[in-house]
């Protein structure tokens, strides 16, 4: 039986001893060598396969911690604004905990597979004009005291997500030279910065964003105003990292390459980090590329 993430790293998480953990078996995801991509890029490339989490994305790492605390605090409902993956995770973990989940989604911005996950577990779904409007309303519900916000603005989300950094270091035996990942709202990069920081060594972060944030085909990073922009800038400055803006064509080329060369079927946004490594190869470095979500999240893009 897989040890729940919140139990495995209990000493590194802000959860009280003896607290009942709301878990679906998240964490302990594979770190896969990528020999063909390594040869193509000229670096030692590894793939952190977060699509192996229970609802198919990295969001589960933070959601187990946030919902565990919400349940312990006597909450009756959680709320999030989401382009899809947070919604699917929040809905599943709320159902596991016996809580109501309210999902505020941007109009036309959620992939069909993710919406199916949300509806299947009985969450309440409402549509707003865009992500920013949805997030403001979610924050207002939390301020009223009726719902617990489980977006990455909830610091417990980042505490859970930082555990991916611990797993990478455990598997590699040290910190990679480079960590490349998609840049949507910025919460995941901030979580990795916290995790590696606690271990005493930062990789050089490469944050890959869509050139057209408002209309990108990579729906999971279709966020115009990143909530964690200031924190991301600090993490990049501290690590000597950079933001690389990618065309949809480059992201989709990397998405196809990942499937054809290494057998990993991810959603398009998850290939953004790889696209950045292909655009600016870190020759000779040991690089980890975070593959954030499963391809079945967004099956329509295959057509």
Give an account of the 3D structure.
This protein has 303 residues and is α/β, with parallel strands linked by helices. It is built from twelve helices and ten strands. The protein folds into two domains: 5-57 and 156-302, Rossmann fold; 59-154, Rossmann fold (3-Layer(aba) Sandwich), CATH 3.40.50.1100. 41% of the residues lie in helices and 17% in strands. It has a six-stranded mixed sheet with strand order 1-2-10-7-8-9. Helix 11 crosses helix 12. The longest helix has 15 residues, at 248-262. The protein is globular. The model has no long low-confidence stretch (mean pLDDT 95).
Low-confidence stretches: none
What is the first-to-last residue Cα distance?
Answer: 37 Å
Q: What's the architecture of the largest domain in CATH terms? A: 3-Layer(aba) Sandwich
Shape: globular
Strand content: 15-25%
- Please give the share of residues in helix: 40-55%
Look at the structure and give the CATH class of the largest domain: Alpha Beta
Q: Please, what is the average pLDDT? A: 95
Count of helical regions = 12
Which fold does the CATH topology of the largest domain refer to? Rossmann fold
- Largest β-sheet summary: 6 strands, mixed
How many β-strands, per DSSP?
Answer: 10
Spell out the helices and strands N to C.
HEHEHEHEHEHEHHEHEHEHHE
